[in-house]
Write a structure and sequence with these properties.
Blueprint: E1 7-11, H1 15-26, E2 30-34, E3 48-50, H2 57-66, E4 69-72, H3 79-86, H4 95-102, H5 104-113, E5 121-124, H6 127-136, E6 141-145, E7 155-158, H7 161-170, E8 176-180, E9 184-194, E10 200-202, E11 206-211, E12 214-220, H8 226-242, E13 247-256, E14 261-267, H9 277-280, H10 285-293, E15 307-313, H11 324-328, E16 333-337, E17 348-355, H12 359-374
Parallel strand pairs: 1-2, 1-4, 2-3
Antiparallel strand pairs: 5-8, 6-7, 6-8, 9-10, 9-11, 9-13, 11-12, 12-15, 13-14, 15-17, 16-17
Helix pairs in contact: 1-10, 4-5, 6-7
The structure holds adenosine-5'-triphosphate (ATP) and magnesium ion.
Adenosine-5'-triphosphate binds at residues 119, 142, 144, 149-153, 179, 181-182, 184, 187, 210, 213, 252, 264-265.
Length: 377
């Protein structure tokens, strides 16, 4: 077991890395962050920010020499970098797990190999396959790049083979998947923590609302029957076991109108839909990431209060800095800002979480604050 004040390394310095830094440093660990961005949100709170590329041999060498273990904050760290660390120190989650989650084609095949369902899809390597896929699937569909998509970027809704071809060109004719658009009753996610020796702790299922492909709100507990929650949780646990996963894993699931549970994708790290755990669970998903990285068992995932988390996107900054005092005056609201220098439309700048005696009260407070923040000053 790795104990404080060991140095932990994080590859990637966005908001997820930042919240990892906060959790680790609170517990007495030291944190080094690798991220080329001089304004990295995590770099600002790290003990040391190595401002270098993810394949910079000098920076990697220094990090491997000093860090007791390394984790990742996003999927697109080069595989060779992960292998470089893994040859000497623990890398959690494993490079193999990250490689599967990084690529929609491998991910979907892996999910099916476990006997679990996804939305109907076809792999698209060239334009000819696209025509065949449009015939095989019921349109509208969603064409998604196999790699490097996030927050709804790298995907297009297509209603005809013509639109599909135009979208494929717009995506640079890179490997894609064409998915059938599912009629959703709701979207849910399961966040879990799995230790190196296979102990699993699952958080209650969250219910997510996306706007324009970007997460807007998560409410916990989800408004679903216990049977559905159990089934969803079982699916996520099964995936984690099949990966022999170590770390925090988030599984996004579609609950279709016909009752089916279809796995959308998995994130091999803490997830936006788990941010409420910072304020409403006994152990946050970031503390779990620290614990599992260090070979410790998961902490309790017990929910302390119903919660509603709302993302703060850059759009809110259009008229200048939002009037935070309006939010901060509420006793049961918690503000989290990521320290990003520039606000852009659609960019995740922060989030707030509302707690309450019950989910209705938390949701009501969230709506009140949302209106207060968008009202003119
Ligand atoms: P993120 O990384 O933020 O999770 P992403 O870019 O990886 O997003 P997806 O999770 O694939 O994108 O899709 C974003 C959202 O688009 C989903 O949460 C859902 O609301 C909608 N969506 C995606 N695929 C489908 C589908 N097959 N049927 C219905 N809705 C879908
Ligand atoms: Mg998603």
């Amino acid at each position: 077991m790795i104990t404080p004040e060991a140095i932990l390394g994080v590859l990637g310095g966005g908001q997820l890395g930042r919240m990892f830094c906060l959790a680790a440093r609170r517990m007495g660990y030291r944190v080094w962050v690798l991220d080329p961005d001089p304004h990295s949100p995590a770099g600002a709170l790290a003990d040391r920010h190595l401002q270098a590329r993810y394949d910079d041999t000098e920076a990697l060498g220094e990090m491997r020499a000093h860090c007791a273990a390394v984790t990742t904050e996003f999927e697109n760290i080069p595989a060779a970098t992960l292998e470089y660390f893994a040859s000497r120190i623990p890398v959690r989650p494993s490079p193999q797990s990250v490689a599967i989650a990084r690529d929609r084609i491998r991910e979907k095949r892996f999910i099916h190999a476990q006997g679990l369902a996804t939305a109907p899809f076809r792999v698209i390597a060239d334009a000819a396959e696209l025509d065949a896929a449009c015939t095989a699937l019921r349109l509208p569909g969603i064409l998604k790049t196999a790699q490097l998509g996030y927050d709804g970027k790298g995907q297009y809704v297509v209603h005809s083979p013509q639109e599909a071809r135009a979208a494929f060109r717009a995506l640079g004719e890179k490997p894609c998947v064409l998915e059938q658009r599912v009629e959703l009753a709701r979207e849910i996610s399961v966040v879990l923590a799995r230790s190196v020796d296979g102990q699993v702790a699952t958080y209650p299922v969250g219910q997510n609302v996306h706007i324009d492909g970007i997460l807007d709100t998560t409410r916990v507990p989800a408004n679903i029957p216990a049977e559905v929650a159990d089934r969803a949780t079982g699916m996520a646990v099964k995936l984690a076991a099949a990966l022999d996963y170590c770390g925090v894993l988030a599984v996004e699931i579609f609950h279709a109108t016909d009752g089916a549970l279809l796995i959308n994708e998995m994130a091999p790290r803490p997830h936006n839909s788990g941010h409420y755990t910072l304020d409403a669970a006994l152990t946050s998903q970031f503390e779990q990431q620290v614990r599992l990285l260090c070979g410790l068992p998961p902490g309790s995932t017990r929910l302390l209060s119903p919660a509603v988390m709302v993302n703060l996107l850059g759009d809110l900054w259009e008229q200048g800095t939002p009037a935070w005092e309006r939010l901060l005056c509420h006793a049961e609201a918690k503000l989290h800002l990521y320290g990003k220098q520039r606000a852009r439309a659609g960019r995740k700048m922060g989030h707030f979480t509302c707690l309450g005696e019950d989910i209705t009260a938390a949701a009501r407070l969230a709506e009140t604050i949302r209106h207060e923040l968008s009202a003119p000053t």
